[in-house]
Amino acid sequence: MFANFAASPGDPILSLQQTYAEDPRSDKVNLSIGIYHDEAGRVPQLKSVKRAQARLRSIDAPCVYQPMAGAANYRQAVQTLLFGAGHTKVTAGHVATIQTVGGSGALKVGSDLLRRHFPDAEVWISNPTWDNHAAIFEGSGFPVKRYTYFDSQTQGVDFEAMSACLRTLRRGSIVLFHPCCHNPTGADLTNAQWDRIISIVTSRGLLPFLDIAYQGFGSGVEEDCYAIRAMADADVSFLVSSSFSKTFSLYGERCGALSIVCASADEAARALSQSELAVRRNYSSPPTHGGQLVATVLLDAELKALWIREVDAMRERIAEMRRQLHDAMRVVQPGGNFRYLLKQRGMFAYTGLSADQVRALRTNSGIYLVDSGRLCIAGLNTGNIQRVAVALAAMTL
Ligand code: PMP
């Protein structure tokens, strides 16, 4: 039956974790996967989450199925976090939010839903983007195309080329954006540039899909939602996929959400029922525990304040690692321009190294980056940064 199955090469980032685990070198450094590590090189367990865990443990209840849309308290907490407390689109009932299996589940449910209702649409993603974006939308049957985004000369966004490209898209095209901390480049739009994107989206009749997986790792938990809130303020109809994997350090709990911002409460009720159908067809209902940890934190003023301080601390540690890597590379190579490390935001830096250079770095120094040249800043600490700086600066000599 299965003799003709070809072996899949696997996901390039996930397979690299296996290679890293098997690497016997004691001074190896993993800067490939997007997982936040603390100064001691550990994946943290947040204090706010620990406290929520203690509270939940005291609730002794059987574990029944959740509704297809997930838990009501979680869905409400997500809306407040993304749109801000008391946003009129939320209070008017124009936003349909469901709990999903991580941010990936939100993308999958959203793309299945859109494919059913807009079978002739094209999906446009940034060039480059997180690899799984193309895989998920293609998996739902969409043709996936790429809009100009990153300029390797300036190591920032080529905004003029990006907006020129968006202006040429067919009406009804679905366009995936990263509201903050672009993966893999760390190059983000300014608020003024988002305003210009909104006017293009409105005038060209595009359907934005905003994917936010790093809320709080850019400028702050509230600040990072500028694009989402500005689009809602401008009465644009759009989707948001969101993830708590990194910001709650709850990777394996698979906590995400899909929000559909509609023109009316009636439309939102129908969008909700269609998303429930898409969930039913995929996995029926989301898991319970992780969502309740997140909801317990976000719906308690004290725990939420503690969580925000913890996210702030993660963001500041990343920024400090950026500065230290930049300064250490400048010492090794005083003429080098490594300012991109300071300009780019979020967990990733886009080094501009070629796949061959990345492989050489892995073989010769045991330093693991993704083949695209993406480096996870959150894997650096004061114990490994010097070695990484020397090896990286040597690559760019
Ligand atoms: N979107 C982006 C841009 C991401 O970087 C990630 C995680 N790497 C996701 C979505 C998926 O999030 P999750 O791990 O919660 O499925």
From TrEMBL:
Source species, domain of life: Bacteria
Alphabetical list of InterPro entries matching this protein: Aminotransferase_I/II_large, Asp_trans, PyrdxlP-dep_Trfase, PyrdxlP-dep_Trfase_major, PyrdxlP-dep_Trfase_small
SUPFAM superfamilies named among the record's database cross-references: PLP-dependent transferases (SSF53383)
Names of the cofactor(s): pyridoxal 5'-phosphate
Keywords tagged on the record: Aminotransferase, Coiled coil, Pyridoxal phosphate, Transferase
RNA-binding found in the keyword field: no
Cross-referenced CDD domains: AAT_like
Aminotransferase class I/classII large domain: residues covered: 27-392
Keyword Endoplasmic reticulum set for record: no
Coiled-coil features, chain-numbered ranges: 304-331
Family: Belongs to the class-I pyridoxal-phosphate-dependent aminotransferase family.
Quaternary assembly: Homodimer.
Name of the featured protein: Aromatic-amino-acid transaminase
Organism listed in the record: Noviherbaspirillum suwonense
